[in-house]
User: Fold this.
Amino acid sequence: MKFSIQKDRFAQSVQDVLKAISSRTTIPILTGIKIDATEEGIKLTGSDSDISIESFIPKEEEDQVIADIKQVGSIVLNARFFNEIVKKLPLEKIEIEVITSFQTVIRSGQAEFNLNGLDPEEYPHLPQIEEGEVFKLPTDLLKAMVRQTVFAVSTSETRPILTGVNWKVEDGELICIATDSHRLALRKAAVETDANAEYNVVIPGKSLNELSKILDDTQEPVEIVITDNQVLFRAKHLLFYSRLLEGNYPDTSRLIPADSKTKLELNTKEFLQAIDRASLLAREGRNNVVKLSMIGEEMIEVSSNSPEIGKVTEQVKSQSVEGEELKISFSAKYMMDALKALEGTEINIQFTGAMRPFVIRPQHDDSTLQLILPVRTY
Amino acid sequence: MKFSIQKDRFAQSVQDVLKAISSRTTIPILTGIKIDATEEGIKLTGSDSDISIESFIPKEEEDQVIADIKQVGSIVLNARFFNEIVKKLPLEKIEIEVITSFQTVIRSGQAEFNLNGLDPEEYPHLPQIEEGEVFKLPTDLLKAMVRQTVFAVSTSETRPILTGVNWKVEDGELICIATDSHRLALRKAAVETDANAEYNVVIPGKSLNELSKILDDTQEPVEIVITDNQVLFRAKHLLFYSRLLEGNYPDTSRLIPADSKTKLELNTKEFLQAIDRASLLAREGRNNVVKLSMIGEEMIEVSSNSPEIGKVTEQVKSQSVEGEELKISFSAKYMMDALKALEGTEINIQFTGAMRPFVIRPQHDDSTLQLILPVRTY
Assistant:
């Protein structure tokens, strides 16, 4: 294998596939990055066996030469060192050559690195995904749907299925749901599907987080292929594979109350900042709990009390307060996560009682909601 | 105590004195920030008993009202919470009032915090420093002198005196020296002193680091007062006290070789980047050691070898190579620290043998030097 390539473009691809590589793997070859030089270009692969990422650099693009492949071939190099080295090479052009028994030379200007590589034949094969049914989402919408749900997955392994986000496709609509059983985030959107494809799978939250990081903010479509135990996201020059979580995702539809006894309309930013301030003292207490009460037709009060440190109260103007008066306590962190996930300057909150889950939605937008379970404080 | 004040100015002063406050102190009142409202303005104090910082906010400055003092008085408030609260208050104007038995109310807009304060009478008194002899340095020069030496102090407590920087004033010159016994950094500059003042003290490295962080990059003079066991840095509206380290600083003058058997001239940035690349692999080996050898009249080679991972070699052009040929090994980290500390685009390195300390100086600048002890590798 021997080729020269543009450093910046190559370094970006290395960064991308690095996101799949864990230094704590028990399979030594997976600490490496696989490099394949073909007649068409350079392919980089990284994997931790849960997530696999493949980035392709064509040898030419828009009449520009990016890579000059002198000899096709493959090698596996220690990912951490290789990434550091590529970033710090002195010139814009770098040359990589496998000389003998996986010894690999990396040259740029006067700098020459000689790395001990690994046998590419021993690198595991990526999951084979049949070119079957595909659905498409614009990249920026995909990233928004991930951002608005993935934070709500469980971080505890006691119910592993809850560490993933439930993706359901039916009737041309994708619904993403995450819950850690204390709160729930839901986002839906229309998707382009082949025929009447239906899916109901659970994608690990970690995979979606990594996927989000390597996708650019464009409106280019991402193709999504779902199989029994894998999902593949296919963007330009990039393949992102993740295993799916096994098991059935709980039916969350019953959790979301249909009616409402109290309804508030609030400015998202003002309310978020008031919760943030109240949580300064709440953080010390257990559970980071703040209290919300209605104090009139157009005013609510956010408060928190931490006996050793002090207390805080703040009045926040509400565009409207409808229904029964209410005092309710909840986690400030969950509320802030939910408010940050919602787009839009105005939100409404619908309560059905001090001990029942409540629902936060952007005004005039039914595509997303956040649900939070209150905390009993008395 | 009752006053209102501009939030941004107040928050900056809180940030400054916070640098002296440790959450791990064994003296509970020192986790607090002391606030004194006087007829002249607001004084904030923080201390960990090694470092004490006092920041003063005048009630008026340049015909602008900054603080409105309604009632003089004092209070001590938990520094960490107070800092978070002040930063997050909603409006540009904030009001602080002690109501009863150290209960303190902080108001801004609709937000009201009620903090449990501590008795200001129990706050320790700052060291009393007689208005005696003073010497002056422009702030930016003081910061440069700290930056160019403090990184070389020892981080080990086996010889506590080496955790400080030796400050010597004699013949109108300030000399700052730091060493951890593997390398040494020296910087000197002329200072304005009263009469023929002479000092020889050791200032804790941590104190100088904190001082550097809170001083602005101006040419305004900082007044420095040195007593038996304290040093006071006095800038505009800011007093910074540090205790001195007890004991005698070793005489380092014998360490610096007067002669030279090999002399190199190098471009600082090119050499630094080559060392940085070589250290990528060296980091894995013990000691982070790189090797330097002469390979001709105008070329040196930097290399490093880590049997498990690979090796790296790089040739660097030297403006001149004079004297005996030499192969020498040293810590890449120490070399990078030294090169980053030196100002100037060209440096020279003077060696007196492969096992003797060598000296790095900027070209045409005798005010500073860096000394490094080589590492034996064979």
Observations:
- The domain at 135-253 of chain B is CATH 3.10.150.10 (DNA Polymerase III; Chain A, domain 2).
- Chain B has six helices and 29 strands.
- Chain B has three domains: 2-122, 135-253, 256-372.
- Chain B touches chain A at residues 78, 81, 84-85, 88-90, 110-116, 273-274, 276-277, 280-281, 308-316 (CB under 8 Å).
